[in-house]
Amino acid sequence: MRIFSASVIALLPLAAQAELAGDADRGAEVWNKCKGCHQIGEGAVNRIGPQLNRLFGRQAASIEGFSYSKSMQRAGNDGLTWTFETLDAYIDNPKALVSGTRMSFPGVKDAQDRADLMAWLRRYSDKPSDIPDAEPTARLDYIHVDPAVFEIKGDPEFGEYLASECTTCHLRDGSDEGIPSITLWPEDDFVAAMHAYKQQLRPHPVMQMMASRLTDEEIAALAAYFGALEDE
Question: Quick check: 145 and 195 in contact, CB under 8 A?
């Protein structure tokens, strides 16, 4: 698979750009996985999940009247906005981007399925015909975590040593007093979340800075430590 930078895509003729876009008609089939909780199109209303009209460019947790999780509200307050990149990460693994999301959905793991779904969703965003090369349907191959990273066996004792900075904010007893708990997180979710901060998909600037300092081995160690840490 060829990898195109954003600058290269900007120089491509529209016909070539179309080859990089998801298939919206096929995305309508992928939408069947979503429509049990979400509505889209004329007359769409909030259900278990919020309605998804005008999704691209929208700040997270910004639909008035919908009861979002505290984690989604925090993400929106931190500046999370729905773009191709952030939606791709969220649809792939919702809890990797917003750890306490109420969206109990395992994710769409196939990258082409996600691109097709986003092309379908884009049909219901503002004036999509005016932005034929907009990022919601540009088939960029955004950086994702190498599967080998999830195979690293973390050292919980090393993780405990590293955790002193984490626990100045995140409480070891698992309580949530304005800052989400990371105690007993599944290790894969912890690793994915930290790499989402490193890639600036999760928007919190302090966490982006903290994650950027960590190696893959250090992230694995922290995941092993917090994943086994018992509630006090």
Answer: yes
pLDDT above 60 (res 13): no
| CATH number, domain containing residue 25 | 1.10.760.10
Among 95, 130, 165, the domain-final residue is 130
| Number of independent structural domains in the chain | 2
Q: Quote the pLDDT of residue 21.
A: 60
Specify whether 158 is located in the same domain as 188.
yes
Q: CB-side exposure of 105: number of CA atoms within 13 Å?
A: 21
Q: Which residues contact 15 (CB under 8 A, 6 or more apart)?
A: none
Q: Is residue 137 part of a domain?
A: no
Q: What SS3 class is residue 140? A: coil
Asked if 196 and 89 touch (Cβ cutoff 8 Å), the reply is yes
What mean pLDDT, rounded, does the chain reach? Answer: 83
Interval 165-208: pLDDT, tens: 999 888 888 887 778 889 998 999 899 899 989 988 888 888 99
pLDDT of residue 37: 94
Q: Are 86 and 97 in contact (CB under 8 A)?
A: yes
- Closest by CA position to 195, among listed 137, 135, 147: 147
Question: Which region among 16-20, 24-28, 79-83, 103-107 has the lowest average model confidence (pLDDT)?
Answer: 16-20
Residue 1 lies in a domain: no
